[in-house]
Amino acid sequence: MKRLQIYLADLKELLTARDFVSARTLLKEIGPIDLADGWEYFDADERVAIFRLSTRQKAMQLFEELESEHQAALIGSLQHQDAQDLLSDLDPSATSRMMRDLPPPLVRQFNAIMKKGGLECVQQYLQHAPESVGALMRGRYVTLDEKWTTKAAVERIQYSTRLRRIEETHLDTLMVVDAKNHLRGAVGLKSLVVAPNDMLVRDLMDQAPRTLTPDLDQEEAVKLFTKYKLKSAPVVDKDGALLGVVVYRDIFAIAQAETEEDFAKMAGFARSRTRSVLKSAGLRLPWLIITCLGGVLVSHVIKNFENTLSQIIALASFSPLIAGMGGNVGSQTATIMVRGLATGEIGRDDEAKSIVHEILIGLLLGVSYGIVVGLLAGLAYHDRYGWYFGLVVGLGMTFSMTVASCMASIEPFVLRRFGVDPATATGPMITTTTDLLSNAFYFTLASWLLLGHA
To answer: Least CB-packed of 32, 125, 187, 385 within 10 Å?
Structure first.
């Protein structure tokens, strides 16, 4: 984006003056990602000009980086033949993902632009559910025969791949299939390039690559990619026939979107920009009610210790700090656990280990802060209440942070067992539980140690 700002004024001036030769030269200095980031700075005519003045490969990269609504608008602004050439260069899976977000009139326009063969390919992807692997897989990849030599395989790649479609074609991993298109294995491009020319593909390939099915949920695919550190994975049907390839770049985009959505849910505003005010408020209301009721219960707990507070007013000054530190640790732990569940980093076999790990961290933090805050409280109030005051504050801090980490590490798994989204419910539950338990422990301990020894 910064690079675009350097050339933005000059580029717009050249486009206005219709000096397309100089504009084409200037566009070589600006990357497609920067152009996409600053797309709103150009009007419709300038966008078409930029697209047509860019090299075919760069234009494809630019189109890939644009938001779906900008992609649709650009195609609608191009001449019929240019739009047809663009859609034919796109991977059919990318076209299908774009068309899912378009209103019916634009979908009909796209259908009219695409050639018959291209439309049939796109329809194959549209038949899969939007959140499934079938809707995510790519259709442009290179297949090899296991009986070929590596030299023949490399020649096949060179002859079957068009340079203008290089960005849309998956070449990092080559799929090995038999005569009936059944998957036999996979081999990396690097291995083919460095292997001896007379070596057979079957001797070089991975005969049991991790595969996906088209009906698998995209979130499950994210977990598999994360767990096995995959860069790509073939998609096969129930008979083992190769249907497509899922690549890490697309999986990363899904994982990023899921993580952002989970964080939004934890904050209580999931997709609020795309929903009405009433609907957004309704989504937050149930969990805020839990928090409100928890606050009422906390007030009731504190009211029961009114005698203690009236005699030792200083206790009230540390209560918000103790509850607040517990809440902070709980939020941190919950974020880690919910993210681990969402990305698959925490599997079924790792649950107990992860819970114990986070509880021990909370205990260590609680002890550390408890010692420091307890000493400070003791130094400030030992003349009036003795050193037991610092002990109460220190133990209250330790208890609050330990309980918060314990609840935050366990609750996501419990909620998931009952079919409740952990990202939505964990935050309010932790806040309420931590406030109740920490205040009850803090004031009970104060009544016993301070008033009991007075």
So the answer is: 32
| Residue 65: CA count within 13 A, CB half-sphere | 17
Quote the mean pLDDT of the chain. Answer: 82
3-state secondary structure of 145: coil
**Measured between alpha carbons, how far is 214 from 135 in angstroms, rounded to an integer?**
8
Residues with Cβ within 8 Å of 359's Cβ and at least 6 positions away in sequence, in order, are: 402, 405, 406, 409
Q: What is the DSSP string of 393-416?
A: HHHHHHHHHHHHHHHHHHHHHHHH
What CATH number does domain 2-133 carry, 3.90.226.10, 3.40.50.1820, 1.25.60.10, 3.40.50.720? 1.25.60.10
d(CA 212, CA 204): 22
Strand partners, 144: 176
Q: How many CB atoms lie within 10 A of CB 27?
A: 23
CATH top class, domain 141-257: alpha beta
Residue 345 DSSP symbol: S
Alpha-carbon radius of gyration of the chain: 30
**Collapsed DSSP state (helix, strand, coil) of residue 169:** coil
Mean pLDDT value of segment 281-294: 65
Which pair of tokens denotes residue 254? 């899904």
Contact between 403 and 326 (Cβ < 8 Å): yes
Angle between helices 92-100 and 68-77 (to 10 degrees): 100
From 125-139, 154-168, 340-354, 416-430, the region with the lowest mean pLDDT: 416-430
User: Euclidean distance between the first and final Cα of the chain, in Å?
Assistant: 67
Cα 203 to chain centroid, rounded: 37
pLDDT above 60 for 426: yes
Best CA proximity match to 62, nearest among 49, 79, 76: 49
Report the CATH fold assignment for 268-451.
Tetracycline Repressor; domain 2 (1.10.357)
Instruction: Quick: pLDDT tens for 260-283.
Output: 665 555 555 445 444 556 665 665
CB-CB contact of 358 with 409 (8 Å): yes
For tokens 């109460």, the residue is 392
Residue spans of the domains in the chain: they are: 2-133, 141-257, 268-451
Q: Which of 179, 248, 178, 171 is nearest to 207 (CA)?
A: 178
Q: Where are the beta strands (DSSP E) in 224-353?
A: 232-236, 242-247
Closest CA to 305 of 383, 227, 369, 392: 392
